[in-house]
Amino acid sequence: MLTKEENERMCRVGPGTPMGDALRRYWIPALLSADLPEADCTPKRVQLLGENFVAFRDTNGEVGVLDEACPHRGASLALGRVEDCGIRCLYHGWKFGTDGTIQDTPNMPNPQYKDRFKAPAYPAFEAGGMVWVYLGPNDKEPPRPHFRHFDVDADHIITRAVVQPCNYVQIMEGFVDSSHLTILHQDALASVETGGFVSTESTSRIAADAGPRLEIANTDSGFCYAAIRAVPSEGDPVEHARVTTFTAPIFSMQAPDNVFIAAVPMDDESTLFFNVFWDIEKPINTEPLLTQTLEFFGLSPEIIDRMGMTFESWKRPDAANPNNHFLQDREGMEAGTTFSGLPDFVPEDAAITNSMGPFYDRTREHLVPADAAVIRMRRLLLHCADLVEKGGEPIGVRSDKSQLRAVAADLDPGQRWVDLIELQDQDAW
Ligand code: FES
Ligand SMILES: [Fe+2]
Fold first, then answer.
1. What pLDDT does residue 427 have?
2. pLDDT (tens digit, 9 = 90+) per residue, 128-142?
């Protein structure tokens, strides 16, 4: 449970808010690289942390992120033309490079005028199928993060983003909530086939125990926790540890070490939820594994459209929403063919987190030991806000993220779960 003040402080992300200032100190994903598929393609409007931006790919293939509003008189640059290494505003033709340099001002004949200032532009780079952007103060820009999946070949990695009409923290609480896997996602876990994307052994162990014991260890960029489940066995009792990593401020790695997720606030009540899956051994971004993987997670184009998880569908009245019970299959639930009545996995999470309302009030909840990692995550976020408010740097902006892992494994007698991920002693925060 949080006080109303703590909840507001943790969840509000606009400019000048404590959490908004903290989030602006990190590199965050803004859109998919695939949203800008080729040089000089249609630009993309992007909303991040309560502000509007335009992203475009110039003639050289370089991505630029600028304020959406043209610095002349505020027309949307998302309507602009992308040509000759810049984006040109439709209204009076001012043109800007990826770094905000003003290249042309047709209605201002003095050629020196355009050298006097720049359009607000934000550093960006591409990795892991995403465009990453830094929105904070120029003199505080941290090094670019490097997560393990940045090194995976393009045909071995699938990156998708869905939109949700709720605050980002609601989504992130699901990242660190192992007990809901056993209940909400039980149909998906039961459907996993041997050799598929997620191993049967791991998923059958999740199914065995809805009340795992949670143990948590801080890292220099957040924390790892193990959900330890007692697994029925014929011989000595077996303990299974599912270790999840949470990295400040919005990232998580999920077992069995092939899922990276990020909840990027668009504003206080909407979130862009990135899902990245990879496989070092085999290409999954080619058929048939691409379709199989997307269907397993409920991210096929047909499902995310019907469930209102795309920019085209999320406000459409016939897409899943509270007024139509998120299109839940109540007949299937009665007949016993589905537990949740929702498409497996991500749409289940989306319906649940959206059902909490766009901005969840944490003053009236009843937390239990299975929520220990949720509590740790909230504490981490509030701590980051405190640090930045006091003039410091938030947790983990400069830490090495390339070794962060998640894993699921049975523990040998006497084995510590932290050894599964080779977690060295780290600076506690
Ligand atoms: S508003 Fe963009 S050029 Fe005038
Ligand atoms: Fe979930």
1. 64
2. 999 999 999 999 999
Helices 4-11 and 372-389, packing angle to 10 deg = 70
Q: What is the mean pLDDT of residues 387-404?
A: 95
Rounded to the nearest angstrom, the distance between the alpha carbon of 195 and the centre of ligand 1 is 56
Contact partners, residue 248, CB within 8 Å, separation at least 6: 26, 221, 222, 380, 381, 384, 394, 395, 396
CATH of 148-421, one of 3.40.718.10, 3.40.50.2020, 2.60.40.10, 3.90.380.10: 3.90.380.10
Instruction: State how far the Cα of 132 lies from the Cα of 128, in Å rounded to an integer.
Output: 9
| pTM (2 d.p.) | 0.95
Alpha carbon of 385 to ligand 2 centroid (Å) = 26
Instruction: Record the tokens describing residue 415, joined without a space.
Output: 């084995």
Residue 307 buriedness (CB in 10 A; 0-12 / 13-18 / 19+): buried
Residue 128 and residue 260 in contact, taking contact as beta carbons nearer than 8 Å: yes
3-state secondary structure of 297: helix
Q: What is the distance in A from the centroid of ligand 2 to the CA of 379?
A: 21
| Pocket flag, ligand 1, residue 73 (CB < 6 Å) | yes
CATH H-level superfamily of 27-140: Rieske [2Fe-2S] iron-sulphur domain (2.102.10.10)
